[in-house]
Amino acid sequence: MKQKITVFGSYVTDLMARTPHLPLPGETVKGSAFHMGAGGKGFNQAVAAKKVGADVVMVSKLARDPFGQIAIDMMDELAMDTSHMIYSETSATGIALIMVDENSSQNEIVVVPGACGEITLEEVERCAPLIRESAYLLVQFEVNLDALERAMEIAHEAGVKIILNPAPYQNVPDQLLSLAQMVTPNETEAEGLTGVHIDTQEDAEKAASVLHQKGIADVVITLGGRGVFVSSGGESRIIPPFQVDALDTTGAGDAFNGGLVAALAEGMDIWQAARFASAVAGISVTRLGTSKAMPNREEVEELLAHST
Fold first, then answer.
1. Phi and psi for 129 in degrees, rounded to 5?
2. Is 47 in contact with 78 (CB distance < 8 Å)?
3. Which end of the chain has fewer beta carbons closer than 10 Å to its terminal beta carbon, N or C?
4. C-alpha neighbours within 13 Å on the C-beta side of residue 15
């Protein structure tokens, strides 16, 4: 069973520099490498899902400029449907400035959404038939909220399962959160949504309880090197991480979300899907970049097969 996924979200071109350490305010640091490539939370998640075999369609907004062409070139390379991409006549394609500490693999990112932060309600309505025929809608907070909320409303009314990755965190009404069946925050985002600071599994359970009370059935909190906390159907547990040598953690959350929705669309249960998604993320952090770092299905299956 493989069902259609629509990813409604951001595209930005990543401009990434690696440095011996992240600069302090006012400090100039000499970098060691520069890479440019397709990115944005929505786009990265769609690519991650596509590369592990999902039937996925990406909806975002670009400009007809060189940065926008980078997105189309990569989608063509992966045989992804480009017919639902929207074009702005007034704004540039978004960009992300990324600095990565080559020793710790930690990063700092500035996102300028550009066109994908200006999706109109009319443009969302034109995507309504696509959303309604999907089994899953995967969304993030990297596009303008009015467009995001309308896309979620269309999906909710049609019985489409909505997975909300609340990143980058922003304060939103509980009404919007309640449209989602599943939320996938990291620790910082979970604290923003619930007010619960997460240090332990008990903390994660408290945060999940708050989110369940907001009407969200399934809660998946990524804990970085500590694994993934999952709460669903009255049961909760931590899925342990895969042990890898991290090189660049920039796209780890996106890899996880793309892998998660792909696995769910294949019919895996939430526990299996979280482990599969953790493998996708685990491989992605061993490579430089974001969308280019996403593994294929064979690589994920090999890691799963060789891990207990």
1. -60, -40
2. yes
3. C
4. 9
Q: Which amino acid is at 174?
A: D
How does DSSP classify residue 94? E
Cis peptide before 240 (omega within 30 of 0): no
Cβ–Cβ < 8 Å for 82, 109 = no
DSSP 186: B
**Which of the 8 DSSP states describes residue 251?**
T
- The set of residues, in sequence order, having a beta carbon less than 8 Å from that of 167 and lying 6+ positions away, is 41, 140, 141, 142, 185, 186, 189, 253
Active site residue 269: no
Q: In what order do the strands lie in the sheet with 107-114?
A: 33-39, 12-19, 93-101, 107-114
| Catalytic choice (14, 203, 248, 254) | 254
**Which pairing describes strands 61-63 and 86-88: parallel, antiparallel, or unpaired?**
parallel
CB burial readout 78-100, b (16+ within 10 A) else e: eebeeebbbebeebbbbbbebbb
> pLDDT by residue (tens digit) across 117-156?
999 999 999 999 999 999 999 999 999 999 999 999 999 9
Q: Is the dihedral of CA 152, 257, 250, 221 positive or negative?
A: positive
pLDDT of 54 above 70: yes
